[in-house]
UniProtKB/TrEMBL annotation:
This is Histone deacetylase. Belongs to the histone deacetylase family. One of its GO terms (molecular function) is histone deacetylase activity. InterPro entries: HDAC_classIV, HDACs, His_deacetylse_dom, His_deacetylse_dom_sf, Ureohydrolase_dom_sf. Keywords: Hydrolase. Pfam families: Hist_deacetyl (PF00850). It comes from Pseudopedobacter saltans (strain ATCC 51119 / DSM 12145 / JCM 21818 / CCUG 39354 / LMG 10337 / NBRC 100064 / NCIMB 13643). Residues 20-289 form the Histone deacetylase domain. The keyword Endoplasmic reticulum does not apply. The lineage of its organism: Bacteria, Pseudomonadati, Bacteroidota, Sphingobacteriia, Sphingobacteriales. It comes from the Bacteria. The keyword Hydrolase applies.
Length: 300
């Protein structure tokens, strides 16, 4: 059964000016049901994550600042959202959703968090609309619980997952693989286990060739028993921040390449949605829904 962590409260803690990029999280479940990709019973609402699990990944000092709402002006500005108690609770639910989604993926082959992909949050910082790193937290939870021994994180958001790379820089149990825009945010990159920097304007065929070659390399180097996939759709040519030139079909093919490989190898895959900043919300929602469509067709 396809299981999807859903966050119906998602937009409510945010000021008006920040809501457009987050609107997709309300629209995606509606569109999935409308297109017959999912039904109401496929969705679940996560609980709030316990702080001891947060501390497997993030430092005590940073977590204490978050929960006491005592980030400095510069730390808050780096995140990009005004900090609030409701925002922190929302982030804790997102992270719990990714853990639950990972456990469902082990049972069913694939599972989604309809939010998440907060890959800019490092061990002791938030950045780029990311407070806590949901896939890093879930990966550390699986390792700490001895549910998994070797994890591969595939990050195909147009922005490098700098926080994820920093968190796992000295952790041999988690292999980080990122294909991202060479000249895009963050401008000071961290070092993933496998980084591929793409030039501006790269199109479907060249991108797919790069992905096929390096996905094979990442799997060979990591020998994973679990995969996390950050499936940002800011690779689209319509994206205001992306600088790449993938078509909707090219983005869909990207997802097929990743998910078909997971299916062929019998590797469970947890998917978090990541970025998408096209001018028209329909382009964002449709591209994300295609990821669900591919997963549903391959695994169910």
């Amino acid at each position: 059964m396809l299981k999807i962590a859903h966050h119906p409260f998602f937009c409510h803690p945010l000021p008006e000016g920040h809501r457009f990029p987050m609107l997709k999280y309300e629209l995606i479940p509606q569109q999935l049901i409308r297109r017959g990709i999912a039904r109401e019973e496929n969705f679940f609402e996560p609980e709030i994550l316990n702080e001891e699990i947060v501390l497997l990944t993030h430092s005590n000092e940073y977590w204490n600042k978050l929960k006491s709402l005592s980030l400095s002006y510069h730390e808050e500005r780096r995140i990009g959202f005004p900090l609030s108690e409701r925002l922190v609770k929302r982030e804790l639910r997102i992270c719990r959703g990714t853990i639950d989604s990972a456990l469902y993926a082990i049972d069913y082959g694939v599972s989604f968090n309809s939010a998440g992909g907060t890959h800019h949050a490092g061990s002791d910082w938030g950045e780029g609309f990311c407070l806590l790193n949901d896939q890093a937290i879930a990966a550390n939870y699986l390792i700490d619980s001895q549910i998994s021994n070797s994890i591969l994180i595939i990050d195909l958001d147009v922005h490098q997952g700098n926080g994820t790379a920093e968190i796992f820089a000295d952790n041999d149990a988690v292999f980080t693989f990122s294909i991202h825009g060479e000249k895009n945010f963050p401008f000071r990159k961290e070092k993933s286990d496998l980084d591929v920097a793409s030039p501006d304007g790269i199109e479907d065929e060249e991108y797919q060739d790069i992905l096929v070659e390096n996905l094979e390399k990442a799997i060979c180097l990591s020998s994973p028993d679990m995969i996390f996939y950050q499936a940002g759709v800011d690779v689209l040519s319509t994206d205001k921040l992306g600088k790449l030139s993938l078509s909707p079909d090219g983005c869909k093919k990207r997802d097929y390449i990743v998910l078909n490989k997971c299916k062929a190898l019998g590797l469970p895959v947890q998917i978090s949605m990541g970025g998408g900043y096209s001018a028209h919300i329909k382009d964002i929602v449709d591209a994300h829904c295609n990821t669900y469509l591919i997963a549903n067709e391959l695994f169910f």
